[in-house]
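Onboarding guide, step 5: your first structure request.
Type a short instruction followed by the sequence, for example:

Predict the 3D structure of this protein.
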Amino acid sequence: MNARCRWLLLTLTFVAIPSAHAEVVSFKILKREPFAGGQAFGEVGPYDQITAVARFAIDPKDGRNHAIVDLDLAPRNADGKVEFASDVVILAPKDPAKGNGAILYDVNNRGNKLALGMFNRPPGGPAPDAKNPAGDGFLMRKGYTVVWSGWDGELLHGDGRLLLQAPQAYENGKLVRGLVRQEMSSDTRAKSMPLSRRPNHGSYPLAADGAAKAVLTRRSAENSMREPVDKWRLIQSPLRPLTVGVPQTLPEIRLEIDGGFEPGMLYELIYEGEGSLIQGVGLAGVRDLISFLRHGFTEQNPLRKADGKPAINRAFSFGVSQSGRFLRQLLYQGFNEDIQGRIVFEGLIPHVAGGGLGFFNHRFAQPNRHNGQHEDHLYPADVFPFTYGPSTDPYTKKTDSILARYAKSKVQPRVMHTQSAAEYWHRAGSLVHTDPLGKADADIPDNVRIYGFGGTQHGPAAFPPSKGNSDNYTNFADYRPFLRGLLVALDDWVREDTAPPASIYPRLSDGTLVAWTAKTTGFPKIPGVRFPSVIQQPSLNDYGPLFAAKGIITIEPPTVKAQYTVMVPKGDSDGNDLGMLLPPEVAMPLGTYTGWNLRSKAIGADGALANLQGSFIPFPTDPKSADPRPPVGKRYVDVMDYREFLDEACERLVKERYMVAEDRPRYQAYGTAMWGFVTGKK
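The system replies with structure tokens like these:
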């Protein structure tokens, strides 16, 4: 059965929703079962896990949908609407009346659900897993209804990934054709790689004559000369069969090269593709799903109370990395207002998103791409505007902001932008709070807070850390306790208008945000440690005359016109960040925690940044060490002394509402483990 037939069969099983919520035209629950074996979470009680499919129909003539690229080229139903479908998973109190009235919508990351791993994992504790899916139950004990849905149309089935079945664009009855660029890099001498570079992602098929015109090149670094590659072939797999939920749209396509991929090299394939997804409907789908769950009085709304009224009175959204950029895109393009003019999310936490938006709402969009120092550098992800308040691009002279569409609007949300130290090195994080040339601090709107988590990497490494494919130990400093504390503060901000903790991030005005050289940051000369000679800095790129207005790329690779300026946190004498919100283990350090690490020579591209990784460089234990940093023994008497200092840091963070009180005692056992790793003693 082909994908179209499966789609028709799927639609026949749906029941229509009344026209008052016509954007979600059907919501079919496929399975409802007890979550975590029916475990009760305090006064909230047990939770149910709901697996469903939502089907949407949106009006391309409605002004609130006009931002969706190529929506006018989508097939229409009998009512002139554009249809699409999405996988949905919900964790909800079995008795909706016992919840706290709030949705936490977790923007899935490449189809994967991350909220429980971020919020339900205590300091030093294990991550939720199949045996203990709730972790420590933080979100459930607080009464949140957690929602996920598919928004990315390029994903492949499997491992519980949530898919979006997006429509495809047609012109004159044929699938739209256009220019597609795929970039790949491997850390090993692989025989083949997916065109998408990442596993479990599909790619746009080549047009009928696309292979003959396609050009494959390789280069050692972004700015290096491109060399042609002659002997290669593409292997396209059939669409994976539908097991549950919505069908996938794009196939997996792998590139095979004679002799294999050389580690660290960048391989670039440019071709004419066809079948562009109208990926921007993913933004509308999130908007309309949350609106339906909040306001839908229909029997199909699983979040109704016993009296038939919705159990939800407010909604928050959280997104990690790619998903944080999705939230910035959602805000920028006006999707925090539903079709009836109501607010969608009262509060949002774009986390480790860096300074960019995403390749989410374009012709032949590739949502999996981000801009890195070595990989994926030229994709249209880190593009102006970068700031939440007004800023002017020095090159185009355009003034804009992420929140420009919500000025003096009732649908303007509260925003907590959170980022690790790694975002400053790998993801242009400083541009969130400076002008594009790094000359002045940006004005931060009253409804926005920015929190820079000092001495942390993009995603905390496992403890104890290893070096893996990088120069130094990966950085295990844990910012997740801050996410728990800030979510509580965000809810208080929305419900009671209680001001949240003050923003903390490095600033040009006080000298804590500086140029990225060893001299300006003050990084110590540690024996055997290389300091970065490169950083990720976004460029202003020319993608062709149709890009700005229509989201259509006609120049690949794009022409680099100019460069924006990225700054980084200044360090103290140990090399630890200043001007940042420090986790307890960084505030009372046993080593230097950085937002950067370098690729080891074994995986190629020697000296480039190890993608999104930071470093942990332990303090010396030998008093006679040549290391300029004082040894551990001159800082703390013993493990008990260290634990007391650690507790003082926790006490201060709890008092200032950056952490919840329940996490403070957990640092004692964690501190003992860290002490043992660095000193070899308990």
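Each response can be followed by summary notes, for example: Residues 480-496 form the longest helix (17 residues).
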